[in-house]
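Fold this complex.
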Amino acid sequence: MTTLKQTPLNAAHRAMGAKMVDFGGWDMPVNYGSQIDEHHQVRNDCGMFDVCHMRVVDAKGDGVRAFLRYLLANNADKLATPGRALYSAMLCPEGGVIDDLIIYFMSEQWFRIVVNAGTADKDIAWMKQQAAQHAPQLSITSRDDLAMVAVQGPNARAKVWQVLPQTRKATEGLINFQAADCGEYFVARTGYTGEDGFEVMLPKEKVETFWYELNKAGVKPIGLGARDTLRLEAGMNLYGQDMDESISPLEAGMAWTVDLNSERDFIGKAALLANPPTRKLVGLVLLDRGVLRGHQKVVTAQGEGEITSGSFSPTLEKSIALARVPSGVQVGDTVQVAIRDKMLAAQVVKYPFARNGKGLLNV
Amino acid sequence: MSNPSNLKYTASHEWVRVEADGTVSVGITHHAQDLLGDMVFVESPAVGRKLKAGEECAVVESVKAAADVYAPIAGTVTAANSELDGAPEKINEDPYAAWMFRMAPDNVTDLNGLMDAVAYQAHVDSEAH
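Structure:
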């Protein structure tokens, strides 16, 4: 038996009654009771997530922007104001997605990058390898000394300010996708739920106190179960499920993050131009009774596809999914999904399915 | 929650109750619902269907996962609990009241092959380690 990795909040989760699961080698809370209650808690009030398993990477030195311009599919030049953040895919030369990540532009000497837990080691190795070739003056540092907590929901920011009043002045004016470096606390107005809120990076040794202080202020802990239904409703991809190194970002609903129009060259660009997409990611809502799940087959008039992420939407009280289908499939089409021994009807819809406390669906 | 002593149990986490009319009601145990979490969908077998012992015959789905429910003994389905269609959360709230289907056993002595509450608890404990 392999030993699971633990975040600095492991003991706190157990003390708060979490059900723990193996999540990609990490011992993480899946819920603290009802996953559906936790989901509504975030949509209607606020909740906190242990995201210490995700990795913070600092890229520092002269020419860091030029390096990221080449490393990432989205264009770092979109970031003009310090603190602004950008969501991007990092592609392999063949055009598949190595990871999806967020970069924060702090200065021309410093960009902060936050990557997924399961891909962190591979990502950092790739970044270092590319930097060695193209920008050897840069330092790429995995910030293993930092922890991260996401506080999400309409009341999330107010609760963070209650616990960290010293950060209020610097973070009050942050717009969505902007961060402020407040000394020990790095506060970003980003998240993975479709709600307002902050992601707070802080020294590992301070995170348990921060967690309990938030809880004392009325912020409830939320497990990975609700994190998954929240992100799915918000139409946000999950790496390893909705895309991976074998999938083009153009077939994973990420075309809006890929800048193919500028002169700029970036890793994977030639492959994307040489292989126009034949499939696309769409939203599905199940019209029959049942639950859509990843890997279920989707039958359309244009050919077959597959569900990449599916679950029950607590906000809509219907089953929803993201599915990769032939490009000709249109919003409004009815498709069939193979669930066990049955073919059930689902409708192709625009996503996100829900954001900012509200369902966005018209089926 | 303790497992009621008047019920019989299977290794696959169904409970079985003998009703006054000789049929048996079948549901899933507290332990099973606790593992699965919030229930969102239940599919019961069709009335009249003949089941072999151990046959997959129903499905419960939580937000997290789908799980098969197996026939505890051989018999014929006599009823399905349609109340659960609109309220699958009843399985979480009171798993031993939320029966999924009823069946007429082919042979009532087959029930003797199932576990009692004490044996079932030992089985749950052994699976946890």
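The mean pLDDT of chain A is 97.
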